[in-house]
């Protein structure tokens, strides 16, 4: 009996989809905000992702993304130095932001909703990210835009809570491409 249970457990392990790693060269995570009404893009240069997904069985899928906050790049060193300070991302105290799925469900042809926990600056919120899915050259590609409110994560404290200069609405645009197996 014990051998049968062990064999079944090992069989299930080998049949389960493996976690695919990120193809960093083809992937991106960009935060788009508005400063005085003008869109501003900031790109996270370093992040990792692990994905296990079969479009025929989305409920069994899972994904996690970990972002290196200090890698945020607005295209100018003086701005980059500001964003890591305590008023903004506080990268010294909160070096990582994470998203971990809790459920994935279909939302139309090639479209899915990934529900999960988004943690930024030590604050965790439940979010639902609309995701489009396709396969390109044998790689899984996940793209979407996740709208958030920066003040819900204490991004922009003190004088920066004023949303007339930097808007509260932020769009996190992502393209996650898995490495070929």
Kindly provide the radius of gyration, computed on alpha-carbon positions and rounded to a whole number of angstroms. Answer: 19 Å
Q: How much strand content do the residues show?
A: over 45%
Can you tell me the residue ranges where pLDDT is under 50 for at least 5 consecutive residues? 1-16
Computed structural class = mainly beta
* Helix-strand topology string: HEEEEEEHEEEEE
Taking strands numbered 1, 2, ... along the chain, how are they ordered across the largest sheet? Answer: 1-4-5-7-8-9-10-11-2-3-6
Could you name the CATH homologous superfamily?
Answer: Lipid/polyisoprenoid-binding, YceI-like
Biggest pleated-sheet summary: 11 strands, antiparallel
| Number of H- or I-type helical stretches | 2
Task: Assign an overall shape.
Answer: globular
Distance between the termini: 35 Å
The mean pLDDT is 90
Name of the CATH first level: Mainly Beta
CATH topology: Lipocalin
Bin the helical content: 10-25%
CATH architecture: Beta Barrel
- Total separate domains: 1
Pfam family, one: YceI
Keywords: Signal
Signal peptide: 1-20
Domain Lipid/polyisoprenoid-binding YceI-like: 19-179
Describe the structure.
- This protein is mainly beta and 181 residues long.
- It is 12% helix and 48% strand.
- The chain has helices at residues 2-15, 77-83; strands at 20-21, 28-35, 38-44, 47-52, 62-68, 72-73, 96-106, 111-120, 123-136, 139-149, 169-177.
- The chain has an eleven-stranded antiparallel beta sheet with strand order 1-4-5-7-8-9-10-11-2-3-6, with helices on one face.
- β9 and β10 (139-149) form a beta hairpin.
- Residues 1-16 have low confidence and may be disordered.
- InterPro entries: Lipid/polyisoprenoid-bd_YceI (IPR007372), TTHA0802/YceI-like_sf (IPR036761).
- It comes from Candidatus Desulfobacillus denitrificans.
- This is Polyisoprenoid-binding protein.
- Residues 1-20 form the signal peptide.
